Structure prediction request, 421 residues.
Amino acid sequence: MFSFSKETNSKKIFFWNMAGGITDAATSVILLIATTRIVGEEIAGIIAISIATAQLLNALGNYGMRGFQVTDLIPKYSFSVYHGSRLITCGAMLLAGMISVMLSGYSGNKMIVLAVIILVKLIDAYADVFEGLMQQVGRLDIAGKAQFMRTLFYSAAFVLTLLLVKNIIAACMAMLLTDVLLLILCDILPARNVERFNADLSFNQQKSLLSECFPVFAAFFMMLYLGNAPRYAIDAMLPSESQAIFGIVYTPAQIINLVSAFAFKPLLKSLAEYWGKDRKKYIKTALVLILNIIIITVLIEVGAYYLGIPILSFIYGVDLEGMRPLLMLMLLGGGVNAIAYMLYYALTASRKQIPVFISFVISSIFIFFASTALVRASGLLGAAWSYVITLTLLSALLLGILFWIIVRNKKEGNSADCTLE
Prediction:
């Protein structure tokens, strides 16, 4: 199933990238649906905030390096260096996770659920470096297949265990053990067919790579924080049931991000190549992707206005009457977030880490204050507004960087030394 050869085809790449992306994006949705229906909204709220925190810490484990690794065309760093750096960042994620659990103020089941879900996301972060290797050598289909198998089976383990024993701790432990097993079978063993790797932990190499990727990591960490800040405000001021409702209504917004990712994820390597060889093609590709995201968002908004609330109420078994304004706002935020996410990767391919980092700092400071104030003033609707306004600010800043590139490109006659560092 995971036999390796250098030959593949675009249909396989598209299918397995899509399958992996769908299952990965659907994981939190599946866990939330299962928990809501089997053990109730209060426990579902605990799952929702635990996933949000674990995803934020996952950014530390990944360190924003997937895009950098995939677009390292020379390559500047060997896979052993990337592997070594992932061991370092995952170690940092583990430490940060332990601190987060201790400082969370949670106790009992809530504390254990948070700890186990952080460990699941730690495994996912480690798996990502092997999937990045596959994409780097032109086998995104194998990377997508590995992601598909892991997320599908550990989600299934969670749901089946919860159905059988009605115990959230047992379900989380089943998910963790399944993830570890599938990491070995679907990521580590296939990667060994590509390269006999070890972990290069030499100080100079790691200092260089981690320093070079730090602005990208910081930007991506802050991107996740922007999405999670409203959840933390909800966790501080509203009951766990509100956390579950917010997570439910956020589900359709994830569809926008998922569909958009299918468009730009396979183009990461191409964007890096265009940046070095054909700036006009780079700019045209980025602008076309933005237009596609806008069209996708409008279509989903229209469908969700009429069908979203009835469908979500049926799927989750929760009364969402009166939540249409919240749903529409979250969908708008999902579309703006997809644009910001695409621009983040496009500007990473062009190695514009510093201005991207500054854009995220500005946006993170804004939402830190805005989310608490708006949730206090308007509850869940305030949380949605803080999300939409902040992601709009971020997208505007990143678009400004892209248009600056366009202006500089025209002035310098499509030269390869057009920079914005």
User: Anything to note?
Assistant: Residues 76 and 209 are 9 Å apart (CA to CA). DSSP finds 13 helices and no strands in the chain. Residues 353-411 form the longest helix (59 residues).
